[in-house]
Design brief:
The chain is an alpha/beta fold. 40% of the residues lie in helices and 14% in strands. The protein has a single domain, classed as TIM Barrel. An 8-stranded parallel beta sheet has the order 1-2-3-4-5-6-7-8. α1 (15-28) packs parallel to α2, α2 (42-52) runs parallel beside α3 (75-86) and α4 packs across α5.
Amino acid sequence: MSIPSFGLGTFRLTGQAVIESVKSALELGYRVIDTAQVYKNEADVGQAIAESGVPRSELFITTKIWVDHYAADKLIPSLRDSLQKLRTDYVDLLLIHWPAPGNGVELAEYMAALAEAKALGLTRQIGVSNFNIELTRQAIDVVGKGQIATNQIELSPYLQNTKLTAFLKEQGITVTSYMTLAYGKVLKDPVLAEIANKHKATVAQVALAWAMQQGYAVIPSSTKRENLASNLLARELRLDDEDMARIATLERNGREVSPEGLAPIWD
């Protein structure tokens, strides 16, 4: 199992905005696209991929099951609907979007349904998103060690999640970082700006490189072609030990996303 280290996020993008973002990204060389049922853009993403002419075999597509579809009799039908919208027979990675502890479907039920989706060939890999340590342990107990490819979590220089990331590393589960730029807040950080100047890079490149150097996957989004191109260059940026140590001091538990009823008790 492997999760590509760099991809395109599509959160909050719909219609022509997401179509153009995906098409531009694919033209620039992106091959990983992350979407979700709740983003309501899977059909747009599917259209953009189809119009791009990039072969399906070159792509890595992730989608996420929304909480309304966690029940055993709903998860796979909802995935088939997503596949139809995405114009593909399978996704490369399928995630449970939020643990949603109070929504009436037990973790064991939806994780078993997720494993069944993989057994049916509807997804190549399975994983979770926004799970804390205890819920990740429970998920492993249901599907087996080595079956969970990733836990996609909010993570940025302002929210470094060291306890959870250490646990995931110990379990061989890749961390996928979303909101790596903290809704753009880190772009104004003076420490990151100094590091960026030192490397003749952008602050966004520094934040993305920081995550990737720790072995995390990143999925930044943008509607601007120049930003999409610039973000790609983060793959070539190497931060030194001093840079990494300075960024470690920026931790402030700066969580941006924690919806009531969906989020767990964070570690």
